[in-house]
Amino acid sequence: MNFFTAGKYYLCNMSRPVILVTNDDGIISPGIRALVEVMQQFGDVPVVAPDSPQSGMGHAITIHDPLRLQKVDVFGDIPAYQCSGTPVDCVKIAIDKILRRKPDLCVSGINHGSNASINVIYSGTMSAAMEAAIDGIPAVGFSLSDFSFDADFEPAKVYIEQIVRNLLNNGIPRDALLNVNFPKLPLEEIKGMKICRQAAAKWVEEFDERRDPNGKNYYWLTGQFVNFDQGEDTDVWALENGYVSIVPVQFDLTHHHAISYINKNWNLHS
Known about the structure:
- The protein is built from 7 helices and 14 strands.
- By secondary structure, it is an alpha/beta fold.
- The chain has one domain: Stationary-phase Survival Protein Sure Homolog, Chain: A (3-Layer(aba) Sandwich).
- A 6-stranded mixed beta sheet has the order 3-7-8-10-14-11, sandwiched between helices. Strands 1-2-9 form a 3-stranded antiparallel beta sheet. A 3-stranded mixed beta sheet has the order 4-6-5.
- The chain is globular and about 60 Å long.
């Protein structure tokens, strides 16, 4: 099932696809194991993931240190490699050194913790998927609103299967990727899926200042997630009301409305 470009959409040819699996929680996290289990039914599944947790790395890449890449026996017959770099590094090196071609699909996750709203900016999970999308690869990031190591991913797996099947069969607009978040609920309590927009929310942060035994200050970042958006079409609303949220996002950060505003109101020709 190899993807090709048809106009403005990614579509696919009917053969067995290569699905690159990655994450930001590290190659031994329960979330990536759950994702691999679902992906096996759809195609060949190479795994390239960080050798340690990389949450909050955003779209960082490693440029001042060499990367290490090691094959590991984590998923039985599934070829798996751990990388010393960031989630974005994992996607880049997977394409260049492991696959030596573009995969037909890239899936990232399942993240331990929500990546709804503004979290998409900081997320290593979503940045890995976005790196694939930048390279013209259909991509999706999956996250569960549960930070615990023993989080239950079984309900999410049911919906991941539906989403990936739709993605493979029906395609996705070019230059788009999906940010999918699951509520922390039993399967029977999840009401379904909603296509949403990103909520207008942010972290209100502060630094907890402490002192080490040598008398030097150090700081832990703390904060509270604050939702300013009262809309019922957002990812935060969907999750709070028992739905799986699906937000199509893009890597083009142009604020198109601002172009016309600045051209109309700024004096740039004097």
